[in-house]
Model the fold of this input.
Amino acid sequence: MLDYDKEAGRYDATRGGEPRAVAAAAAVLALVPDAARDLLDLACGTGIVTSRLAAARPGLRVTGADAAHGMARRAAERLPGAVVRADARRLPFPDRSFDAVCAVWLLHLLDDARPVVAEAVRVLRPGGVFVTTVDKAASHHVGSDIDALTAHCRAEPAEDGSERLTRYAAEHGLVPSGTALFRGHGQGRTPRRVAQYIRSGDLYAAGGPRLAERVETLPGPDVPRREPDFTLRAYRAPGA
Done:
């Protein structure tokens, strides 16, 4: 996993910047009821999405939480007084503190997403919603020539798999309440970059050096393939 303290300084530039943040925030808010008063953004990173959530709906009090000091510090610059350093599995908030909890690009990093889902449920008010990205790895499979070469090396479903998360949510009485999409910006994969990921073991490790070589020799090694569309799922807690 990345060292997010070190990554904080370049994170926004390598994750689509403001265009992606605007798109992600709009998709999250499409799944958050208009009547929501308080929203918690888990693993808020640099706060680039968090600040957009707050700006887009002035009547919504938005709080950010991130475990990495470097990320939380940058987020606090965007949202002074509204960011805490906290592990998403052990949140420093009382039960029933928020009408909505969101997690953009968190659960795919985890070996076990259930503690995060449990904490999200704990801090949700009755009838509140938990909104999270799902199937992140699959979102990058856009039908490109890269995808055709690497299909046989794709890993087993990750912790952010939508079916798996729906089961986790159901264990706490949450039911699916909506889906939204947002487009990546500057995140279309190139053969050269994918080859680098394969060699480092971060992607399609089972393919090894031979797969990296084959991917790298595809036409247009530095030409990005189609941008991915990322998926958000919302789950509603029992209650009013």
